[in-house]
Amino acid sequence: MAAEEPPTPPAPAESGGRTAAVIPAAGRGIRLGPGAPKALRHLNGTPMLVHAVRAMAASRAVSLVVVVAPADGAGEVKVLLDEYEHALPERTEFLVVPGGDTRQESVRLGLDALPDDITAVLVHDAARPLVPVDTVDAVVEAVRGGAPAVVPALPLADTVKQVEPQTGGRPEPVVATPERALLRAVQTPQGFDRATLVRAHATVPATGEGATDCAGMVERLGEPVVVVPGHEEAFKVTRPLDLVLAEAVLARRRANDGF
Ligand code: CTP
Ligand code: MG
Predict the structure, then answer these.
(1) How far is the C-alpha of 242 from the C-alpha of 159, rounded, in Å?
(2) Which residue's CA is the nearest one to ligand 1's atom 16?
């Protein structure tokens, strides 16, 4: 009997192959308050998800965008992307898959849908609709340069305290004050060598609410993660005030484009 061929290991991101962006968009947006799922809420008349898809497709390096839709809303999201087709570049392919109960599960479902020739993956929150293309390109470039995991991040404005959480609104004792200059607030898109991210999702168990950050899962594999400069406009739309800020950013862009 002939020995079985060993499986061919996937090519690392640096050796060529295509780059895809997976956009987890299956969250409800509880902190934003009552209304449609967050990704479908409008900013200046356009759904947040469409802004996020455009932001990924704006990078020439990204040839496929996989949208992970609310589990019961994949059909609606497909219709939406068709409706906005004119506003999206022709060179980009789109796929829509239903999401899961946690961000970690939604990202994994997005990864499962990737074709074989994808060697580098960006994971980008639909809730960060305004990330500039230069930030996307900087992340892709670092992955293509050989980094297994790349996160855009910014220094913190606020000092951070570690506390011992209390129930019933009692004051929380402070446990430690990490040195602010050593801390970074991380954003998305986070970029990965595909095989590394797939291994992280296969190995790191989903506990509780699951990982809110894919790079953290890669850290747990013991693989290096590097930071590149993030951007103010890549902030996450989380609470109602963030909607006001996002619309102000769009208004400023429109005013600047007009001149
Ligand atoms: N996400 C997802 N699937 C989930 C939960 C979250 O795809 N089960 C996505 C969200 O759609 C969002 C990104 O992960 O684009 C970041 O999550 P977050 O900002 O926390 O969004 P929500 O979970 O929707 O908001 P909230 O936590 O306030 O409910
Ligand atoms: Mg959430």
Answers:
(1) 20
(2) 125
> Helix H segments across the chain?
48-57, 74-83, 103-112, 133-144, 194-203, 214-220, 240-257
Residue with tokens 């060993």: 6
The closest-lying atom of ligand 1 relative to the alpha carbon of residue 28 is 24
Which of ligand 1's atoms lies nearest the C-alpha of 236?
19
- Distance between CA atoms of 131 and 122, rounded to whole angstroms? 13
Ligand 2 ion: Cβ-proximal residues, 5 Å cutoff: 27
Query: How many other β-carbons are positioned within 10 Å of the β-carbon of residue 35?
Result: 10
Which ligand is closest in space to the CA of residue 26?
Answer: 1
In the chain, what are the domains? 16-153+185-257 (3.90.550.10)
- How far apart are the CA of 126 and the centre of ligand 2, in A? 11
What's residue 119's pLDDT? Answer: 97
Q: Which ligand is nearest to the CA of 129?
A: 1
For residues 109 and 212, what is the distance between their CA atoms, to the nearest angstrom?
15
Give the model confidence (pLDDT) of 240-258 as tens digits.
Answer: 999 999 999 999 999 998 7
User: Following CA atoms 42, 46, 51, 53 in sequence, which dihedral angle do they give, to the nearest 10 degrees?
Assistant: 110
Ligand 1, atom nearest to 102 Cα:
8
pLDDT score, position 259: 65
